[in-house]
């Protein structure tokens, strides 16, 4: 990461953030370059959050064209941009959010990119990508200590995943602990360690992450995995089904083919859970009614969490989620779970 100096203009622009997480954290963020793949609704939310936070550079990569459906939840694309490239159509409004951030566009398909392309960035965020591509990029970036994030929104549901490597270092602000008095007449209570609510200290911590491959290929016949099954949200299995649909069909479920795609989703659900040695009852049939297209409110929630996690990882400030965040818009709640042996 580049040695970065905050100018007076930047200090004024990021004054609130510097007060919130400190100058050093803002410097690390200001020296970071991020690749964002996929400029649909979720990608637009992530782009907005990263640009406003003040990363050094953001590359928007998307090879697809704007359609009426693709811009329904995408506020960066003008209404008259149908037929244009999604990343290119998002550039002007994205840059206007913060002229201090260098926003670039790449209209290539991410699948065509060679390994070295990903090594230019400090973090890579993948949306609307296949399972195989996400696993490939995660493994590539792990070899160079590049942070990887994945996410998608399917109707009322959304998720994010993060892999910050085997050793992610960060600092966390904690209330300062002070020793009790040693005076004899103070009694035993006075000698106990106490928390001073008026003083804080910065504590350095290290945390490890499992890979995306490990997280998606859990052996559910393992006793440890079996014991965590009840705590595993149904959205984890929904994600497996939707990623398999994307692999098989080369697209996501479409509203205009609801009847056909619903039947296929149910069949994939049965096949995926049977392969895992699990009951199809883990994912009730009703899921097919709530996983079509992107919904703007869900994009806002998941994009907010995803953007925040990227900012925390790059600034090395505060504890990150490890590894999954699932959002169920029907319940209005998010769930964080950790998979893997690390």
Automatic annotation (TrEMBL):
Location relative to the cell: Nucleus
The UniProt record lists the keyword Nucleus: yes
InterPro entries: ThiF/MoeB/HesA (IPR045886), ThiF_NAD_FAD-bd (IPR000594), Ubiquitin-activating_enz (IPR035985), UBQ/SUMO-activ_enz_E1-like (IPR000011)
THIF-type NAD/FAD binding fold domain ranges (all copies): 14-333
Presence of the UniProt keyword Ligase in the record: yes
Parts forming coiled coils: none
Assembly behavior: Heterodimer of SAE1 and UBA2/SAE2. The heterodimer corresponds to the two domains that are encoded on a single polypeptide chain in ubiquitin-activating enzyme E1. Interacts with UBE2I.
Family stated for the protein in its record: Belongs to the ubiquitin-activating E1 family.
Identification of the protein by name: SUMO-activating enzyme subunit 1
Source species: Sinocyclocheilus rhinocerous
């Amino acid at each position: 990461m580049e040695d970065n100096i905050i100018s007076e203009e930047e200090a004024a622009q990021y004054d609130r953030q510097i007060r919130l997480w400190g100058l050093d954290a803002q410097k690390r963020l200001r020296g970071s370059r991020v690749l964002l793949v996929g400029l649909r609704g979720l990608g637009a939310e992530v782009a907005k959050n990263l640009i406003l936070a003040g990363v050094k550079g953001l590359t928007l990569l998307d090879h697809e064209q704007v359609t009426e459906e693709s811009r329904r939840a995408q506020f960066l694309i003008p209404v008259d941009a149908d037929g244009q490239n999604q990343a290119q159509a998002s550039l002007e409004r994205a840059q206007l959010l913060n002229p201090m951030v260098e926003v670039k566009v790449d209209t290539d398909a991410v699948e065509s990119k060679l390994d070295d392309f990903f090594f230019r960035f400090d973090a890579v965020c993948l949306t609307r990508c296949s399972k195989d591509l996400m696993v490939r990029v995660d493994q590539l970036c792990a070899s160079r200590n590049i942070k990887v994030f994945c996410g998608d929104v399917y109707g009322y549901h959304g998720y994010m995943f993060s892999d910050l490597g085997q050793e992610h270092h960060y600092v966390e602000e904690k209330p300062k602990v002070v020793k009790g008095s040693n005076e004899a007449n103070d009694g035993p209570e006075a000698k106990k360690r106490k928390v001073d609510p008026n003083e804080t200290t910065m504590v350095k911590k290290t945390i490890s992450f499992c890979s995306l491959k490990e997280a998606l290929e859990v052996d559910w016949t393992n006793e440890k995995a079996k014991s965590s099954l009840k705590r595993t949200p149904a959205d984890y299995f929904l994600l497996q089904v939707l990623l398999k649909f994307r692999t098989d069909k080369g697209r996501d479920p479409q509203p205009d083919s609801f009847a056909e795609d619903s039947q296929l989703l149910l069949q994939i659900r049965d096949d995926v859970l049977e392969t895992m040695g699990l009951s199809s009852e883990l994912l009730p049939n009703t899921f097919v009614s709530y996983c079509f297209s992107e919904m703007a409110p869900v994009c806002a929630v998941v994009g907010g969490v995803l953007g925040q996690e990227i900012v925390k990882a790059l600034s090395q400030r505060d504890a990150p989620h490890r590894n999954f965040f699932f959002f169920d818009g029907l319940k209005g709640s998010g769930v964080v779970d950790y998979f893997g042996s690390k």
